[in-house]
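Single-chain item
Fold in token form
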Amino acid sequence: MKRNAAPAERVFIALGANLGDPRRQLDAAIAALAHTERVVGCSTWHTTTPVGGPPGQPDYLNGVVEVRSDREPEELLSRLQQLEQRFGRVRGEPNGPRTLDLDLLIFGDRRIATTTLELPHPRMEERLFVLAPLAEIAPELVLRNGRSAALQLQHLRRMANLAPSRVDPTG
């Protein structure tokens, strides 16, 4: 349920897709999200190799969107899951291919650990496909480990000795 008195919270949502027309699906998901939340920023789309899951998957298109929300985290999570279903998401094999994946990363300064939701997202600090677009739109954002998103991204790249993700220049 929407909170009336409290100000809208700063929320970051990761988006990804590797089935169908990922670019169209991600753009449409942001447009649908904008009907209920105030979208204030969106990264460019990053093409990334799948992490885990079945071999032979196509590359993912990933990004991060920043919104302001006056909903409760569980309500926003439900909204995101409804959008995933609307875009044909089938929850099968973990890390399997998908038409749309929406993950709540950060919801203000909330810390939540339930069976259905953990905030901040427990693995975002170790995922280049999340940190690269997050650092693009919120480089100063301080993560759970005390590092900014930009510094954590640099750290992961150093550890993995990796080049930056491929950025879609049209997105």
In short: The helical segments are 22-33, 73-86, 128-137, 149-160. The two ends are 33 Å apart (CA to CA). The beta strands are 9-17, 38-42, 46-48, 60-69, 101-107, 112-113, 118-119, 166-167.
